[in-house]
Fold this sequence. Notes:
Layout: H1 2-75, H2 80-137
Helix pairs in contact: 1-2
Amino acid sequence: VSTQSTGKIGSREKYINSQMEAPLAEYRRLRDRLAELENKYQSAGSTVTEQSRALAQINEELETVKAQMDEKGTTMTDSGPLVKIKQAITKIKNELVQMELRIGVLQHVVLTSKVNDKTAMQRDMRIDDQFHDLKTAF
């Protein structure tokens, strides 16, 4: 009787293992994808930090140029240097717009990565729940 029971248990175990191969492979694939996305997220986060620092530096330079322009604007009668300063300010403003756009794009990438991570995690949780339900059924 015990050999027959052992045989039945072995066959059920093989059946469960064969049924769980696909969900387990999907789980492993999703786990690897999550690790990949976490690395991308960290990379994007450091890029955003670098871009923010660059933006802060440009803002400081802009303030310095504005202060210099105000100081020299009151004492100078020659408009040549003033025109150059205004051109520099316009250039810096354009660079600021470009930096803000880059930061916005990077923030979007980070947010998309977070959403994808959450979706993958919820899917993994459903697979784990299904696996647990199968285990408790047998």
